[in-house]
Design a protein that fits this description.
It is built from four helices and two strands. It has 102 residues and is mainly alpha-helical. Strands 1-2 form a two-stranded antiparallel sheet. Helix 1 packs across helix 3. The chain is rod-shaped, with a radius of gyration of 33 Å.
């Protein structure tokens, strides 16, 4: 348990240091030199803490109508009229329409 406690304390310590660096407006190098930290360690903790805190961005999404990739159905008569039917019609309804037109 002692190892974990030390790890948590170290992470909390560097979380504060990284926050101070970000608030300072200084480069990592300048901040690390001014505070006596190795720049590589500041860089390490800044990357580590940014990946821990980063949560995936979720955007609201609503689907109005399902997207159909099927083409519309066009019925052409020998006399020249055309009936365009949406692709979502049940096949039984189309069959009944064709029987009625025949």
């Amino acid at each position: 348990m002692e190892i974990w406690d030390g790890g948590y304390r170290r992470a909390a310590l560097w979380e504060g240091r990284v926050a101070q660096w970000r608030d300072s407006g200084q480069s990592q190098r300048a901040f690390a030199l001014n505070h006596g930290y190795p720049q590589r360690q500041l860089n390490y903790w800044a990357r580590r803490l940014s990946t821990v805190d980063a949560a995936p961005a979720l955007l609201p999404l609503s689907i109005q109508h399902p997207v159909s990739t099927a083409p519309a159905i066009n019925l052409r008569s020998p006399s020249g009229w055309i009936v365009t039917l949406p692709p979502a019609l049940p096949t039984s309804w189309v069959a009944e329409l064709l029987r009625a037109l025949a």
